[in-house]
Amino acid sequence: TQVKNPQQVQEAGKETRTLQMDSREKKQGDIKHKRRKQNEPVETTPVDIWFDDVDPDDIEAALGPEAGKVARENLNIRNDRTLQALTKAVAIDCEMVGVGPTGEDSILARVSVVNVFGKCVYDKYVKPSENVTDYRTAVSGIRPEHLKSGEDFKTVQKEVADILRDRILVGHALHNDLKILLLDHPKKKIRDTQRYKPFKNQVKSLRPSLKLLCEKLLNVKVQTSEHSSVQDAQAAMRLYTLVKKQWEASLKEIPKAKKN
After folding, report:
1. pLDDT at 38 over 90
2. From CA 219, how far away is CA 203, in angstroms rounded?
3. Please, one GO biological process term (predicted)?
């Protein structure tokens, strides 16, 4: 992730910015076979769970709470503090407010980042660099009091850039978020839920909204009133984890196809 140079910042400031076997060694003859009572739950052990880069939440949903617990232990995820850690993939979403005579131009007001577990790892309001003429509260959820104690834009920009560096970036219509942050990110590390072709085909839309994708693919309603950048980032991450294996596999197939 790169911060754009001062000249680009100055020029962009004038633009509209619309947005991871325990085998028990027993001597021969030591193993005794007991008949299990009917309906007695089977205890899940580490040896029963084989997974490669699978979210423990997904394992829990498929195999039950005990399986999820073992998976988290295998990943050394034993407490909420660890769940709050940065992961290989993070999702981002920004909220903007309007500036200028008509309030049509946009500046950053809030940026939120969540990890692959949907836990918020970064959430800050940004102090406006110019007079806000439209808080867009009905959509952005931003109010004057939120920005009074906001951070300086450059501070937020640097902190976000540091978080995104070398990570897979998930989001919806990410070009808008990167533009308002004046940041670049390697194309090969971007996972944009608006641009993922299987999603577009499933909902029959060339530019599906986050709201539509969540409703059709997750059976979840989002953005029913004021937007929340945390919730929108969580929604984008959930969509990504839903098809993570297929998505990542499809990206590995592209170079092979070009060679043929």
Report:
1. no
2. 12
3. DNA repair
Q: DSSP string spanning 71-114?
A: HHHHTT--SHHHHTS--SEEEEEEEEEEESTTS-EEEEEEEEEE
Residue showing tokens 């990504």: 240
b/e sequence 135-168, b meaning 16+ C-beta within 10 Å: bbeeebbbeeebbeebeebeebbeebbebbeebb
Q: Can you tell me the distance from the alpha carbon of 27 to that of 127, in angstroms, rounded to the nearest whole number?
A: 68
Beta bridge partners of 95: 110
Question: What are the residues facing 94 on neighbouring strands?
Answer: 111
Residue range 201-221, pLDDT digits in tens: 999 999 999 999 999 999 888
What is the C-alpha separation between 120 and 115, in angstroms, rounded?
7
pTM of the predicted structure, to 2 decimals:
0.70
The amino acid sitting at 154 is K
CB 119 within 8 A of CB 89: no
| Nearest Cα to Cα of residue 3 among 169, 208, 185, 139 | 185
Q: Kindly report the backbone phi and psi dihedral angles of residue 72, in degrees, each rounded to the nearest multiple of 5, phi listed first.
A: -65, -35
Is-contact 91 167, C-beta < 8 A?
A: no
Give the DSSP letter of residue 185.
-
Task: Name the DSSP letter for residue 28.
Answer: T
From the CB of residue 207, how many other CB atoms can be counted at a distance below 10 Å? 9
Burial of 230 (0-12, 13-18, 19+ CB in 10 A): buried
